[in-house]
Amino acid sequence: MQIAIKNKILRLELGDITESAADAIVNTANSALAGGGGVDGAIHRAGGPSIMEECRKIGGCPTGSAVITGGGSLYAKHVIHTVGPVWRGGGKNEAELLASSYRNSLKLASKHNLRSVAFPSISTGAYGYPLEEAAAVAMKAVISHLSENELPEEVTFVLFGEKAFNAYEKVLKGMNL
Ligand code: APR
Predict the structure, then answer these.
(1) Nearest atom (ligand 1) to Cα of 41
(2) Which of 92, 134, 139, 158 has its CA 20 to 30 Å from the CA of residue 12?
(3) Cβ atoms of residues 82 and 118 within 8 Å
(4) Topology of 2-174 in CATH?
(5) Ligand 1 touching residue 16 (CB < 6 A)
(6) 43 C-alpha vs ligand 1 centroid, how far in Å?
């Protein structure tokens, strides 16, 4: 599914983010940039050791922020590492921190003149954020960036499994854009 936002594109896809050929793919990192399972494990496995070498030099990234490295042997030339919030029931500023992860990732993409960015569903795996609530926050943050900035021109959510894809599709259709 894809929709136009001004002259830009927002797309939902089912798949594995490590196979994306976007200019940058976004990693669901932890604040130590230490690697892990899920998207983080898959990106470091597919991209090779140079990504972790750069992460070690950067040293860390607070929740809601983002940093950028090269893409190693991935198709994507860059990896934007962001740290989403751990879900603690919804009363611990999770929505604002999740929106901030998307906003700061997109700001970095703009700053580096990147035309296309692929996001996974940040925080909805190991960090436990409920899917539909996360989808609503994610889409709102991305749509607002696409409406107000020149770059990136294309944002794709690469969703791992029907459950995530269906949740994002339901939320996007419900936004009546
Ligand atoms: N491509 C796209 N999406 C994927 C992939 C993949 N290859 N692998 C997993 N996912 C999906 C999961 O199904 C989930 O919906 O990405 C979403 C986010 O899951 P996680 O990767 O667990 O990310 P998050 O919940 O933000 O937790 C981050 O997990 O691996 C550690 O180091 C990481 O501590 C950090 C934490």
Answers:
(1) 30
(2) 92
(3) no
(4) Leucine Aminopeptidase, subunit E; domain 1 (3.40.220)
(5) yes
(6) 10
Give the neighbor-by-neighbor strand order of the sheet with 116-119.
Answer: 2-5, 8-14, 154-159, 116-119, 24-28, 78-82, 66-70
Known catalytic membership, residue 40: yes
Task: Verify cis geometry, omega within 30 degrees of 0, for the bond prior to 130.
Answer: no
Q: Across-strand partners of 67?
A: 81
pLDDT per residue as tens digits for the range 92-121: 999 999 999 999 999 999 999 999 999 999
What is the reported pTM? 0.98
Domain spans in the chain, listed from the N-terminal domain onward: 2-174
Please state the separation of Cα 171 from the chain's center in Å: 17
The tokens 């939320």 sit on which residue?
171
